[in-house]
Amino acid sequence: MKLLKVQAHLYLSGEVQGVGMRVFIRSMALKFSLSGFVRNLDDGRVEAVLQGEKESIGKVLERIREGGAPGQIQDLKLLWEDPFSEFNGFVITHGEK
Known about the structure:
The chain is α+β, with helices and mostly antiparallel strands. It has one domain: Alpha-Beta Plaits, CATH 3.30.70.100. Helices cover 27% and strands 37% of the residues. The protein has helices at residues 21-31, 54-68, and strands spanning 6-15, 35-40, 46-52, 72-81, 90-92. The protein has a 5-stranded mixed β-sheet with strand order 4-1-3-2-5, covered by helices on one side. Strand 2 (35-40) and strand 3 (46-52) form a beta hairpin. It is globular, with a radius of gyration of 12 Å.
């Protein structure tokens, strides 16, 4: 039985750029077999879309929230969405689309 994919859309603010946040999120996503992307936004936030099993996304969120992420997160906005496209792997992108 194939498990239904879900999608989490994250916006992190605080000291999150230039500290390895994108690399950290990508490594966690790959560790838990998630697809999607992470990128810096022009306003200083980091945006990430994680797609896969809800339990796996939850594990990544735990690691971000428990202080395992680099930098200093002041706010994490989380939106659960229906997957809007199928991602192939997990990539770090640059700049806003």
